[in-house]
Amino acid sequence: MASQNTFVLISGANQGIGLEIVKKLATENAGYHVLMGCRSLEKGQAAIASLPPNLPVEPVELDITNDSSISKAVAKFQEKYGRLDVLVNNAGISSLSLPEGLSLRQQYSQIMDTNAISAACLTEAFVPLLHKSSHPRIIFMTSELGSIGATLDPKFPYYGLDAPQYKASKAAMNMIMATYAVRYKDAGFQVNVCCPGFNATNLNGFNTRAGHPSNGAINACRLATAGKDGETGTFTNKEGTLPW
C-alpha cells in the first residue's frame, strides 16, 4: 500500500460514534486508510456494508480488554502497514453495558478497565508504530462528564447526573492523555482528548433527546486531520475548549 497514505485505527468502530468517525474520515479525506477496530470481523464487515461503497475501510479484529487481541492486532498492523499515523481510542462502555447483579466494586472495575486502562494498554502497544509516523496523532474519546470542574459547577447542564463510575473512568482517561501528551511532545506527537457530545448511542440507551452520532465525529475528525502545527494536550468538543 502506498506509503503516502495516512493509516488510522479506531477502536470500537463498527457502531455509533466510532462508525461515524470511520465514515467521515474515509469519505472526506483523500489518502486516509481507515482500520475499523471491532470485536468480530463479521460485525466489522456488516458495518462496512452499511457505508457508501468502495471506501478505503477495512475491519481489524480488536478487543481492547484482551492483551492477546491487542498484540495480534499490532503484529498484523506491523506486517501489513509498518506504521500507524492516527490512533482513535473510541471503544467504551457505560453502566448500561454491564450485566445485572454486579457489586459496586465490579461496576467500577469493569468500566474503568474498558474506558481507561484498556485505552492506555492499546495506546502503549501501538506507540512503536506511531513513532514510525512522520505525524503521529492520538485521540482519546472522553466526555465532558469526566470534567471535575464541570461536575462541581451548578451551571453545568448535567450537574447532579449520577454516573460516578463512568465519570471517574473518563476523568482517568483525561489524565492518561495528559501523561502521553507530555511524554511524547518533543517527539512531535499530537495527543488530545475529545468529547463527542450527547448523541444517541448504546452508551445512553439511544436516548431520544440526544443528537445524531454523526455530531460526535466532527471534533474527532478535526483532530485526526490536523496539520503538524495542530494542538496537543487539549480537552475539546466541537464548540471549543472544556474545563478540566
Automatic annotation (TrEMBL):
Gene Ontology MF terms: oxidoreductase activity
InterPro entries in alphabetical order: Fungal_SecMetab_SDRs, NAD(P)-bd_dom_sf, SDR_fam
A Pfam family assignment: adh_short
Domain of life: Eukaryota
GO cellular component: cytoplasm
Biological processes, Gene Ontology terms: secondary metabolic process
Family: Belongs to the short-chain dehydrogenases/reductases (SDR) family.
PANTHER family assigned: CHAIN DEHYDROGENASE, PUTATIVE (AFU_ORTHOLOGUE AFUA_5G01530)-RELATED, SHORT-CHAIN DEHYDROGENASE/REDUCTASE
Listed name of the protein: Short chain dehydrogenase
Organism this protein belongs to: Cladonia borealis
